[in-house]
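We emphasize that the prediction below concerns an isolated chain of 143 residues; any contacts that depend on oligomerization or on bound cofactors are therefore not represented. The input was used exactly as deposited, without trimming of termini.
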Amino acid sequence: MLGAGIGGLVFDPISLVLGTAALSRAFGMMIFGAATGVAMGLVESALKSKWLFVTAGPLAGKQFILYKPLTTMGSRQGCDIYLFKDPSIMPAHATIEQRGNRLWLSATGPVFVNGRQEQQRCLASGDLVQIGRYSFSYQEKAR
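Result of the prediction step, given as a token string:
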């Protein structure tokens, strides 16, 4: 009831001034969408504890929150982290598996961590991971 009352107080004057309820509804939907986006960002930020930040490649600037028990990386569109436009990347190139409080990277294709090729490795905050032309910085929230 409180939300309906506030909505009526805020949006009803708009429709009275403009003589149409359509603009009032459009404004209401715009505010609802913005509030939803802000809420999602706050929840994502609060729950983010481990993530990959893309530092190079077509996805540079994007971050992937690692919240699943198993995250797949590769050129297959069904992968959790889809690495496209690079023929050197296999369909299922690598996985990141949560084991207790740690994340383990397992590679089926060439993967470099801090400049060294690795088949399997426990990730530590600050590690630089390279797969094909993609580079990632692995980060953990300080405890």
